[in-house]
TrEMBL record:
Pathway assigned to this chain's UniProt record: Carbohydrate degradation; 2-deoxy-D-ribose 1-phosphate degradation; D-glyceraldehyde 3-phosphate and acetaldehyde from 2-deoxy-alpha-D-ribose 1-phosphate: step 2/2
Entry GO MF terms: deoxyribose-phosphate aldolase activity
Top-rank taxon, per record: Bacteria
Gene3D superfamilies linked: Aldolase class I (3.20.20.70)
Family, similarity comment: Belongs to the DeoC/FbaB aldolase family. DeoC type 2 subfamily.
Protein name (record): Deoxyribose-phosphate aldolase
Enzyme class, spelled out: lyase
Reaction catalyzed: 2-deoxy-D-ribose 5-phosphate = D-glyceraldehyde 3-phosphate + acetaldehyde
GO cellular component: cytoplasm
Keyword Cell division carried by entry: no
Organism: Janthinobacterium tructae
Classification via SMART domains: DeoC
One of the protein's GO biological processes: deoxyribonucleotide catabolic process
Annotated CDD domains: DeoC
Amino acid sequence: MTLMHPEFKRNEAVGLDLGWINQIRVNRAATDRRAASLANRRTVKKEYQAAWLVKAIQMIDLTTLGGDDTPGRVERLCMKAMRPLRADLMDALGLTQLSTGAVCVYHEMIQPAVKVIQGRLPIAAVSTGFPAGLTSMETKLREIELSVAAGASEIDIVITRQHVLNGNWQVLYDEMLAYRKACGVAHVKAILATGDLLTMENVAKASWVCMMAGADFIKTSTGKEGVNATIPVALTMVRTIREYHEQTGFQVGFKPAGGVSSAKSALQYLTLMKEELGNEWLQPHLFRIGASSLLTDIERQLEHYVTGSYSANHRHAQP
């Protein structure tokens, strides 16, 4: 299974335009004001909030990327991904079918995921020397090929940050192009590790270069940096996606990851996508949230909507 929608035309490499890249500027003050407007507004309530939270579940890449991961943990994660809400909550909300957007694991945990999921959900694997991305290019490409062969239908690659910091856009483009080719039919999410890129201009330029090289998604973070997903960074990235679509006709997806752990923050990202890119991007083939604990908080909020009471975290199955 891939993240492709039946009517979705996959992003193709369009060639690197250094003239365009070099003229990119970001108005940081305006970006921060727009981001604050999302953070400070009143959220939706009652049945509207419940509907948005169900939508958020469908966008989650349910993730486990710990050094202590085991096949058993991954199997439980996959079962939770296929049945993210308890049966009583599903009945109360009038839902008959619901799953997360995908699961996201290390290469060694692909086989346990395949065993449980059996083609019913996409399996994403982090690759290319995740999280630092400082292994050899030969190793990175082979890692992608092995993960695809093992059953991953999506590959979350990490870019080499030094290419961005040194302004080596051609080298970054060639790297991303090679990753795209190695993925074959598997879709590729380019992790920018925005917390390491220092400036919003670097975030915007790296987004453009990766999209020009054929990235199907651009993703904020590995979740391992000191600063991960933030609304200002997300705003900068989704606006590059909008401009890229206007110029090329290709739709590229967006994935915030790292630190998105509350239902409130998930609603902010959904609002951002709706207002900046429109309802068309509120689908799993164009929007994902990389998260591990987010699902628990959403389930608690939905239980409160149904019963009027909050439950303790330990009453909910942990992925």
